[in-house]
Specification:
Length: 317
């Protein structure tokens, strides 16, 4: 048996969750004493395959068919791999695409499916940790089956590093074209899509502590000085001060920037779920007991209306 992780790409780029799947897959493979195989379906599979060849990967399997994700192609290709490789555990991304095909694939392979995992362990059974009630409670699920499929939440595992020595090779599968019922013809940005905060290296994020919409000017001034992108917590978006595409959190976007500056954000679990994967977190809040300080690498306990302009002057000068 093996552990098989299925990578993901979109619009010509391998997504970060793919390398996080490699990390999670290697940990799981070590726990059960087996090999880690990685699959990539469609797109530039040669380049993607080489990028997925990280330390700990034993084999990379590619299926070249089309440029973008396709439900039917992915289900057929991964099912064929599973029949050949007999994976004990199948790891999939907990993303829009992953959730599109994971149930169909699990049903086809007759596997139990557990979604949105934030941690995995092997005891007598596979133990999956999930969150419930708006991330307020962690629960563990013992999967009482020899084999299972699991989707993992993005940004919960670090991205795999290092260059591996696995063979990257095409997987021989014949796609039944008569069973492919759809195709991607293009992408259309949603309304309000002025920026993509998930791509930003530095995010200056603002919360309800800003008080009113007119005060956002000082946040944008700091972002300009840092060459950063402005994001927000849900209260700011709900108030209509910034568009939905700038919202970070469980009901917004998951972000993993190099630097995340939280301004006037208390640190509710729903918001933290979307940004805790940032490499460095800086919190500015006048409440020393704000939960955001529990995860911050650096904290400034002071009035944001004093701190933010001072930072802008320092970095903009």
């Amino acid at each position: 048996m093996t552990v098989l992780a299925v990578a993901e790409h979109r619009r010509g780029e391998l997504r970060d969750v793919s390398l996080e799947l490699v990390t999670a897959g290697r940990e799981l493979a070590d726990a059960v004493g087996t090999d880690l195989h990685v699959a990539i379906v469609s797109g530039d599979v040669e380049d993607f395959g080489e990028d997925l060849n990280r330390e700990g990967v034993d084999a990379v399997h590619t299926v070249a068919r089309g440029e973008e994700f396709n439900h039917d192609v992915t289900v057929q290709a991964v099912a064929a791999m599973a029949d050949d490789l007999d994976p004990q555990y199948l790891l999939l991304p907990h993303t829009v695409n992953g959730l599109d095909y994971a149930p169909a694939l699990a049903s086809r392979l007759d596997l139990p499916l557990v979604t949105d995992a934030i941690d995995l362990a092997v005891e007598d059974d596979l133990v999956v940790t999930r969150e419930m009630y708006g991330s307020k409670v962690e629960t563990t699920i013992a999967v009482e089956a020899e084999r299972a499929a699991v989707t993992i939440r993005p940004a919960e595992w670090p991205q795999a590093e290092g260059v591996g020595s696995a063979e990257v090779a095409p997987f021989d599968v014949t796609i039944d074209e008569s069973a492919v019922g759809s195709t991607v013809t293009g992408f259309e940005e949603v309304a309000g899509g002025d920026v993509d905060i998930s791509d930003a290296d530095v995010l200056v994020s603002v919360g309800r502590g800003i008080g009113e919409e007119e005060n956002l000017d000082i946040v944008f001034d700091l972002a300009e000085a840092l060459d950063a992108t402005v994001s927000a917590s849900r209260p700011v978006v709900d108030s209509g001060w910034l568009p939905k595409n700038r919202q970070v959190g469980q009901s917004g976007k998951v972000v993993t920037p190099d630097v995340y500056i939280a301004i006037g954000i208390s640190g509710a679990v729903q918001h933290v779920a979307g940004m805790k994967g940032a490499e460095t977190i800086v919190a500015i809040n006048k409440d020393p007991n704000a939960p955001i300080f529990d995860i911050a690498d650096y904290g400034i306990v002071d009035d944001l209306f004093d701190v933010v302009p001072a930072l802008t002057e320092e970095f903009g000068g």
